[in-house]
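Researcher: I'm comparing several assemblies side by side, and this is the next one on my list. It has 646 residues spread over two chains. Same procedure as the others: predict the full complex and return the structure.
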Amino acid sequence: MNTKPRALFLTAGLVAFFSITSTVYAHGFGERYDLPIPLMYFIIGAIAAVGVSFLLVGVFVTSETSAANFRYEVKLPEWPMGYIVTRCVNWLVKSFSAFLLVLIILTALFGSNKPIYNFAPTFIWIIWWVGIGFVSAVFGNVWPLINPWKITFEMAETISKLFRRGREVKPFLRYPSDLHGWPVVIMFAVFAWIENVYWGAAIPRHLAALVIIYSLVQWGGMLCFGKQIWLKNADPFTLIFRFFSKLSVFEIDDSQGKVFIRPPGWGFFTSSKPHVSIMIFVLILLSTVTLDGIKETPFWNDIYTSLSYLSYTQIDTLGLIVVPTIFVSIYFLFCLSIRYFSRENPNLISIGAAFAFSLLPIALAYHFAHYLSLLLIPGQAIIPLLSDPFGIGWNLFGSAGYQIKLNAINAKAAWFFSVSVIVIGHVLAVYISHVFAVKMFKSHDNAIRSQYPMLLLMLIYTAISLWILSMPIVE
Amino acid sequence: MAVEIKLIGTILMKLLILNLMLLTGLIVGCSGNSDPSEASISLAIKYDMNSHELSLLSVDEPNKDYDMGSHNQYYVLSDNSVIKLRQGDTFTINLTSEVAGGFHIHGYDILNDVDAEKSLSFTFVADATGKYDMVFHRFMGEKQQEHGDMAKDEEHGDMETVLGSIEVFPN
């Protein structure tokens, strides 16, 4: 059953929504050609995950570990004109980022309404959403430096300061402290629905509306409550890209303009215990990343078939409610057993929050494994689109005729990358969780014991990630 | 501090060893000797008048078993047609169709028009690994109601059906 549900929805929905624009072309946008990982890779990956877990437990049992904060600042030698060059680079990056936001809105509004001929869908869904995750994991938290909503807001601040004779723009509302990170949870839930369920997510006109709404919400929020507090509590991407950057060897402190180097993944060890809203955010992130993979498997296709009286949108929406609920329930079940095994009696919510970040490496690893080939193969579509962003026959840089190279990554390399990354993510998760346990529980023995259920949970999660990768992609 | 660095050092060493083992395992487990080969298959696109559904059949040897160890055998399933190839194979498809349309292999972007009851033959080198859909755009005189797997492509005023896929495996 090679149905193309999105294609059907596009056609059906567009008639209702956009009777003026006549053409729809669903297939082709972000189309994936991945082969599922063979059984051999699955087995080796699973054995490696189990083996490494036992090895790490052995290390933990015989030694005292704690997370020291070792990182070293990278200092550039002072050089003449250095300050001016830095300012210029900073200014160039910021203007380019603001320019891209304008370009996306313009192309999405006025360019071709076919996803594959318009700059906006490929840029937003592949280059930005998938790409910035990879970039953050390698180069550190670059998002605060290039966030176009923050940049445009700062530009507006500067301009208004000129008109107000140097007076700062003060937020006119106080962010309610009881609200914590709940706005980010709601916003991410909406984003996850758009990404995973909404049929119009790749249609330029719909993307235009979504980007404009998101921009207005972000600018409005920053204006009302203040830039930093809003971005921290209500911008899902600031949070997600920060999670990715915890894997990086570079730690960027944008408030002080400093760069540190640290061991990869070290960012997780130094994370403080998040608020319960952030814990829920992390669990929703984990479950939607996994759901995104499950949705492309024959298993999900069987669900479509067996629930044929519901529409695809209804089934996917249900999935988006049910899967995170299952994740949260299972997580709390394991938190209960952590408490039982530790023989101490901390608050359940407190256990949940303390270990929330420890599952992140598995989810991020799955994200990389799942999306590497998407970035490397369909992501190449950005090359011709740069020359013809509106899809109207331009050839600005001479690359409009570029043909996507399918062998940019060989299946064997992709399999090896996927399995290795998932095993490494698993190891990091086990290690981080142990460090958190040592911080949390009074005795070392209690901490070690508390990790037995956690280890089981992580093995299950790793196995699910591998299982999804071993399924053929059915779109 | 020194103890901790040492400890992390040992962990990283062990990880490295494990990953090397993983790598060796994968290479040993998955390397088969395989030289690129040439092969061909004869396919027929059938049209069901009642259900308006299109299907792809292998003409000469339907449902022939595919053996991962050898290269000259191809497996065409009747329900979900999959042709399995090795990377580097030169592959020829001889195609006949009961209806007129364009035969398209996604990714490789091979697009050939075939007339009703005529045959068509084309050859390509399967140089990129992956799973690529084989799609048929049926030419229509006038637009018809959407049906089943088909999606309307208004540019050509025809219908698109996914017939099956070609899976190219790495060597």
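Model: For your comparison table: Chain B touches chain A through 47 residues (CB under 8 Å).
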